[in-house]
Amino acid sequence: MDIRTTTDQERDLFVATVHIAFARFPDTPNEDGSGVFWAAYETDRCLLARTEDGRPVGTAAAYSFELTLPGGALVPAPGVTAVGVLPTHRRQGVLTAMMRHQLAEFRDRGEFLSVLLASESQIYGRFGYGPATYTGRLTVPRHRAALNAPRAGAHTPEIGSIEILNRADCGELLEQLYDRYRRAQPGAISRPPHWWALGAGMPPVAPAPRYVAVHRDADGVPDGYATYYLDGAGTLTIDETITTNDTAATALARLALGHDLVTEVVFKHVPPDHPLRWQLADFNAGQKSSETDWLWVRLLDIPRALTARGWFTDGELVLDVTDPFLDEHGRYLLTVQDGKADCVPTDRKPDLSLDVRDLGAIYLGGTTPSALVRAGHIHAHHPDVAARADTLFRAERSPHCLHWF
Ligand SMILES: CC(=O)SCCNC(=O)CCNC(=O)[C@H](O)C(C)(C)COP(=O)(O)OP(=O)(O)OC[C@H]1O[C@@H](n2cnc3c(N)ncnc32)[C@H](O)[C@@H]1OP(=O)(O)O
């Protein structure tokens, strides 16, 4: 198997091979070239796998994203995408060879972790990826949509204003607001400017017809938006609500839930602990569905990864980490003091023994170590250590990613 970086001349071949693997036809570009997810491929990060006789049979690529870690550090995070093997060449190790090649390239570039969205959750664990953030939908029937008043003096006055714009008239407003939001949200990834320019992605990055409710604070400064559409059956679907504070999020939810001619409101991409269910006067009015894994994380340099994120409790743990895919093993003493971690090799007895995929899953604070201990994936060497690890790995807020790539 010959695996090489795609040249500019091979770009069309790469795109065609991806589409055969997914049994899709390339979308017809809009006149301005927008609305096509593959337009954002970075050719120098696209890999083509060929057979001995030169036939392309596999593809894998990466986008150069930034990931927001707990504590606010922004770190380079290649976003793996366009992974495909022709139906004629599956289960012969093509993907395995591409993953090995790609992880080595990430390390050569100095990248210490990578991320992806998995088309099927059985594929990527063997390559060291673990599910680190989760998302779902919340559906609220309009006739049960009343919101509680704030309690216990927690009243945040909903001062500000909302304007409804057309997606096409928003200029760079959505891009700017998303960028402010993602810098403060653990688990969020950047949307590089050319994604917006090319319309590469799902709405509202892709410029499909949408209304955009833009929230402004009391000083008139935009601090959030929700993009939505209403279908013929009376379902108002919100693609995403992006805000830099909870007041804006509540105001935008109130607007959607009070919209006339609507029978139900569907909030897509809601994090597991979204406050809206608690705001509803009728808790069970908000029905969660389509709960799914979203961002998978793969650590490539454990000390760098653990010292890059922020920490919120002092403590120490000895982690014994195996990486079967890369045939590596390390034991590390993780010491956290005043929000910063030190992580060094040690020969002390381990507190937790775990696979690198499970370290990826708990890294952002969205999967608890104790859940994986109870699942039989992490071995806790003392009875109290799982709870200690839960406290240590927690993020300042639950990690969430809603960017599709
Ligand atoms: C980040 C993204 O881009 S997600 C998109 C992933 N791509 C797709 O879903 C497109 C359609 N599917 C495909 O193109 C291929 O089936 C791929 C890319 C998923 C797998 O490629 P292959 O070359 O067949 O994988 P490879 O032969 O290296 O498989 C390695 C192991 O993973 C297992 N595996 C591979 N794909 C799957 C799967 N979809 N479900 C369960 N197990 C799988 C294989 O059985 C094999 O296991 P084994 O080592 O125990 O025998």
Summarize the structure.
This protein is of the alpha+beta class and 405 residues long.
> What does the radius of gyration come to?
22 Å
Query: Uncertain runs with pLDDT below 50, 5 residues or more?
Result: none
Bound molecules: acetyl coenzyme *A
Superfamily (CATH H level) name of the largest domain: Gcn5-related N-acetyltransferase (GNAT)
Large-scale geometry: globular
Q: In the CATH classification, which architecture of the largest domain applies?
A: 3-Layer(aba) Sandwich
Mean pLDDT: 95
Strand order of the largest sheet: 1-2-3-4-5-14-6
State the major sheet.
7 strands, mixed
Q: Count of helices?
A: 10
What do you see in this structure?
Residues 1-150 form the N-acetyltransferase domain. It comes from Kitasatospora cathayae. Belongs to the acetyltransferase Eis family. Homohexamer; trimer of dimers. With 405 residues, the protein is an alpha+beta fold. It folds into three domains: 2-111, Aminopeptidase (3-Layer(aba) Sandwich), CATH 3.40.630.30; 136-290, 3-Layer(aba) Sandwich (Aminopeptidase); 305-393, SCP2 sterol-binding domain (Nonspecific Lipid-transfer Protein, Chain A). The protein is 22% helix and 32% strand. It is built from ten helices and 19 strands. The strands form three sheets. The chain has a seven-stranded mixed beta sheet with strand order 1-2-3-4-5-14-6, with helices on both faces. The longest helix has 15 residues, at 94-108. The two termini are 27 Å apart. The chain binds acetyl coenzyme *A (ACO).
